[in-house]
Amino acid sequence: MTPVNLIGRGRIGAAVAGWLEGSDNHVLQSFIGRTGTWRAAPLTIDAAGPQALRAHGEVLLSQGDLWSVGAAALIDGDLRGRLAAVASRTGHELRLFTGWIAGPTLAPAAANARLYIEQHAPRLGPAPGPLFSGPLRAAAARFPDHLNTATAAALAGPGIDATTIALHCSEDGGPHVIRARFEVPGQTIQTDVRFDDGPHPVAQAIIAALEARGHWLRYG
Questions:
Q1: Which helix (H) or strand (E) holds 210?
Q2: Which of 24, 25, 39, 151 has a 20 to 30 A CA-CA distance from 77?
Q3: CA 122, CA 83: separation in Å to the nearest integer?
Q4: Alpha helices, DSSP H only, in 67-192?
Q5: Which residues contact 170 (CB under 8 A, 6 or more apart)?
Q6: pLDDT digit string (tens) for 108-125?
Q7: What CATH number did the domain enclosing 170 receive?
Q8: Is the pTM of the predicted complex or chain greater than 0.85?
Q9: Is 171 helix (H, G, I), strand (E, B) or coil?
């Protein structure tokens, strides 16, 4: 049984904790809060977001692999550098969720790629309508905790400064929509994802990754 530490008791964390309680291969060792100490684990899952990654990322990555839903924290180049140094020293890996945007991992770094993202979600702004259109780095200054998927895709592919984003606040109760276009010379890959009511999609992605952990067959 692989011990797993977990940050976050919201919809994502609760769903992952529930799955861990019934797992034959993983066991929930402890929840990590804002303060206090915990025993190191070979895997920690940050289901709380950017603030948790900022607060605990270096320590947790020094103790084992770290999975995080808080990729937006990595807009900060200093934090990225510190985490990269920890990973280089320990051999541990930081895995960012969620990989819904197609293309970024399918082209080498020298491919001169660009990434264009459009995101619609309720409660992004004070009223329904367009909120922002422009470089991802500029968007991060205004929406630091709402760019996790976009930042993860940018860091996996063309980079933050080769990524642009348009943000729209949709009606309360409306779907969460992500559209993206990944371009390299001679190739365009488009993504169109819609999330309606149902299990939390990020929790589902983390559970799927836990199920696949150590499996001999991989896709992608």
A1: helix 201-212
A2: 39
A3: 32
A4: 77-90, 136-142, 148-156
A5: 120, 121, 122, 124, 128, 176, 177
A6: 887 899 999 999 998 888
A7: 3.30.360.10
A8: yes
A9: coil
